[in-house]
Design goal:
The protein is α+β, with helices and mostly antiparallel strands. It has one helix and two strands; from the N terminus they run H-E-E.
Length: 70
C-alpha cells in the first residue's frame, strides 16, 4: 500500500511536476517497498502467467497478464 512508501503520493506528484507536465493517465513508477521481490529469501519475480492488478479508488483498475517476450 502507499503506507509503505518513503514519500507520500502528494509529495511525489509535486516533485515530478517540477520537471515535467503531468497529464491525466500519466503513471509515476515508484518501485517497490522493502521486503518484496529481490528482498525475499528466496527472491521472487514476476513470471509468465502471473497477473498484476492495480487500482486507484475513483479512477479504476488496470489488469495485466505477464506474457513471454516477442
Amino acid at each position: 500500500t502507499t503506507a509503505n512508501m518513503v514519500f507520500n503520493v502528494a509529495r511525489l506528484v509535486s516533485f515530478v511536476s517540477r520537471f515535467m507536465t503531468l497529464r491525466p493517465g500519466d503513471i509515476i513508477a515508484t518501485g517497490t517497498p522493502a521486503g518484496v521481490g529481490r528482498g525475499l529469501d528466496p527472491p521472487r519475480y514476476l513470471k509468465v502467467g502471473d497477473r498484476v492488478i492495480l487500482g486507484i479508488e475513483g479512477l479504476g483498475i488496470q489488469d495485466h497478464l505477464v506474457t513471454a517476450a516477442g
